[in-house]
Amino acid sequence: xxxxxxxxxxxxxxxxxxxxxxxxxxxxxxxxxxxxxxxxxxxxxxxxxxxxxxxxxxxxxxxxxxxxxxxxxxxxxxxxxxxxxxxxxxxxxxxxxxxxxxxxxxxxxxxxxxxxxxxxxxxxxxxxxxxxxxxxxxxxxxxxxxxxxxxxxxxxxxxxxxxxxxxxxxxxxxxxxxxxxxxxxxxxxxxxxxxxxxxxxxxxxxxxxxxxxxxxxxxxxxxxxxxxxxxxxxxxxxxxxxxxxxxxxxxxxxxxxxxxxxxxxxxxxxxxxxxxxxxxxxxxxxxxxxxxxxxxxxxxxxxxxxxxxxxxxxxxxxxxxxxxxxxxxxxxxxxxxxxxxxxxxxxxxxxxxxxxxxxxxxxxxxxxxxxxxxxxxxxxxxxxxxxxxxxxxxxxxxxxxxxxxxxxxxxxxxxxxxxxxxxxxxxxxxxxxxxxxxxxxxxxxxxxxxxxxxxxxxxxxxxxxxxxxxxxxxxxxxxxxxxxxxxxxxxxxxxxxxxxxxxxxx
Length: 506
Prior knowledge:
Blueprint: E1 2-3, E2 9-10, E3 16-24, E4 34-40, E5 43-50, E6 62-67, E7 73-79, E8 89-98, H1 106-109, E9 112-114, E10 126-129, E11 155-159, E12 162-166, E13 174-175, E14 185-190, E15 194-202, E16 206-207, E17 215-216, E18 219-220, E19 226-232, E20 237-240, E21 243-244, E22 249-250, E23 252-253, E24 255-261, E25 269-276, E26 282-291, E27 323-326, E28 330-334, E29 338-343, E30 349-355, E31 363-366, E32 368-369, E33 372-375, E34 378-381, E35 386-387, E36 391-393, E37 400-406, E38 414-422, E39 428-436, E40 444-447, E41 452-456, E42 463-466, E43 472-474, E44 493-497, E45 502-505
Antiparallel strand pairs: 1-7, 2-7, 3-6, 3-8, 4-5, 4-7, 9-11, 10-26, 11-12, 13-26, 14-25, 15-24, 15-26, 16-17, 18-23, 19-20, 19-25, 21-22, 21-24, 27-28, 28-29, 29-30, 30-32, 31-41, 33-34, 33-40, 35-37, 36-37, 37-38, 38-39, 42-43, 42-44, 44-45
């Protein structure tokens, strides 16, 4: 939908736009939600003010504040909506331009009603937590930081259907400090099913923890950043990321919101600690209410894997079956689970890999080298290494093979043995024993194993676990590379198919 504003707007003096809207049944694709077009020095100019993926899709009124990085005269306005259901809807109330970041009314952020008439909790199930002796700051002094024009009225108020009691004194909020070692503790001394928090969060503009650079930080769900630590009278504690009632998700959002700690144990809660690990953030507790009745807030589903299919038992050979047999240019390792064909003459390479426990599924891969070795700036694949004849031994746990190799001829002064074992327990184990043979100091490089095009069953059903900081479990294509350490804290990587119940673990 497009239209012309009644009066063209010169955007050059303005740096922010505040858009009040509500949306329902949106999809994240599309070029824009609000688009402006116009002229500058005789040339057509356009600007997508806010995109659809920046909107909150819950049917409630919100205000999106976005930077305005353009300087033409806007004479055209267009709206766009995309939906993955039968009907998507957006309502646009107003657009306000400003030269400074605008301050908002609390009513622009939350549905707020006076007294407790609109409460979803019955009066007999509400227990207000007294913060009068804990308050350590004045809300009026933090209005600019919290991006608010004014503060809530003191006394009884209902926010998102939850009854709260705000303080009337000049010192009327409890806030975290710049020292993250200071942990505010809120005494509760009562048992209940849920704790509701009216809390504001002032987050840094950007997060610098991602592997792809910085990103805007308007919400987070990382327990490493902030948790409510619930202490029970029987000595147990729970570290909880709250449910944000505005999004029905376990997360903390920038600004003023209502949060819930759901499904509390039916044991007296002695206190709740605010454990903040973001030095440049502030968390402001305005009011706390305990629900002593039945649970009101649903616990959101946690992102996880699809349920595993029921897999019929696969008849396997006797546990004693495990074998290594020579071929014309290599060896074959096999046991009840796997059959692996390796080239050992003229280099080391994987030629075939078969699974005997996929119940009709297929294990796919691209034949090629098993690993890469390097020293300094030179790296070579294993199929270019000089190899010697394999030796086979047969201990009680299953046969083993050892293939000596030398990388000196390929420019890498590393030699050693490639070792493989076919265990009677159903595993095939591969490992390297390496010796650096160079005379000069160099940084060794070992990529083992190095398999390409690996899939378990259908490509769409093949999942991966990449254990970087934060972790990635998904099916979508991604390019990742981290060394084991702070950015890759778990020494494991998995390819797996939950429907078939099969995993390839490195």
